[in-house]
Amino acid sequence: MKIKYILKKIHKRFLNFKKHPLTKQNPLGALFRYVKFNLVQYINEKPRVYNWIDGLKFYAQKGDAGIVANIYFKLFDYEDSMFLIHHLKPQDLFVDIGANVGHYSLLAASVCKANVIAFEPIPTTFSKLEKNLNLNNLSQKVKIFNIGIGAENSVLNFTKTKDVMNSVALDYETDVVSVEVKKLDDILVKENPTFLKIDVEGYEYFVLQGAMNVLKSKSLKYIIIELNFSTLKFGITNEEIFSFLVSFDFVPISYDVQNRKIIPLKNYNPEKFNTIFIKKDLLN
């Protein structure tokens, strides 16, 4: 039964490799990297260093889903990552809320040469983020905070055993860690962010509630935000977040990477986990 499950999972991955822009020309090569990674981790589940793009490297082990897929896809979250690379400029400020182990922070600081402020509330994940930044000599370029971001300054319980799915804990969840939470407005008082990335496993609306001054800032141009219905566990819909961002003159888009073309959307992107928003006046 387990073998059947594994074969089914491998086949599903292979179909994804045949579609991804960076692996569709050689899906078997991607499949080899996928199988090799999992076999090596099965033998000895410890973090290892992997080469990435533009000279970047990262530590990865089984469970580090926020960055592991880059081993076999070369660049996961392709459309969003390439939008970041094409639009974030040197000396811009990129703010990474829910940085995980550093996919976007590494790209922003190294490839784009931007300044980065990153937030990761889970202590074990924060430690991995710190190691990845040190591995690439980026600790001076990226300011990291082991705190959560929310609607109020407080302390909240977070889950700690769900890898990239860790989030603010619900009342019935018991295996948790208490973490300080601050409003983004209070932290970025003297900063001028250009680009926000928000991936907080359903808590996105509350992050935005504590970031109204940032959203009004003339410097802020772009937002990548996760909208995948995980908001429902906190009683919030994707539509509410969409309407909230629209009220600050942000509009959703998709991005044609090959032609570097921004395509306006009428709503958030239901085909992907993330939606890119840009300031409305940038469309003109």
UniProtKB/TrEMBL annotation:
Keywords: Methyltransferase, Transferase. Pfam families: Methyltransf_21 (PF05050). Residues 96-250 form the Methyltransferase FkbM domain. It comes from the Bacteria. The keyword Kinase does not apply. GO terms for biological process: methylation. GO terms for molecular function: methyltransferase activity. InterPro entries: FkbM_mtfrase, SAM-dependent_MTase, SAM-dependent_MTases_sf. This is FkbM family methyltransferase.
